[in-house]
């Protein structure tokens, strides 16, 4: 130790003052701690507000999610009901379509049967028409032959009648001569 009483490392007697560098250091540490506390508390308050806001938003979104899920379930139920209705309608329409197709097939078969019958009748009528035309031609030929025969017979009859009339006129004139009485000038028998 040094003599003279000014030892650096010694404690000062009667001094209540702290060394100034220690006091300044403490103030700096307190200031840093205060600043950090203030910074942490503002960050904490901001974070707390943000947590509260996010919590509220989470609850709001959770409620919306539940509403959407409920709506999705309702829509899914409605969709299933509609699908069931559509399937029933399809089944009914399928049955109606099958019935209509069967009815159309039956009507088509009936129409085809009637058409076949009409074609057959038409063919028969054509055949009869051809036969009738042939009969008409034969009848026309017979009629023409009959007319010719009648004309010939008429001509022959007229000729025979003419000859008979001529003979009758000759006979009459000869008979009238024989009945004439020349002396009396009268006919005999009168």
TrEMBL record:
Tell me the compartments it is located in.
Membrane
Q: Transmembrane region positions? A: 21-38
UniProt keywords, alphabetically: Coiled coil, Membrane, Signal-anchor, Transmembrane, Transmembrane helix
Membrane topology term: Single-pass type II membrane protein
- Kindly list any coiled-coil regions of this protein: 51-78, 136-163
Which named protein is this? Answer: Uncharacterized protein
Q: Which family does it belong to?
A: Belongs to the GOLM family.
Superkingdom of the source? Answer: Eukaryota
Q: Which InterPro entries match?
A: GOLM1/CASC4
Write down any Gene Ontology CC term: membrane
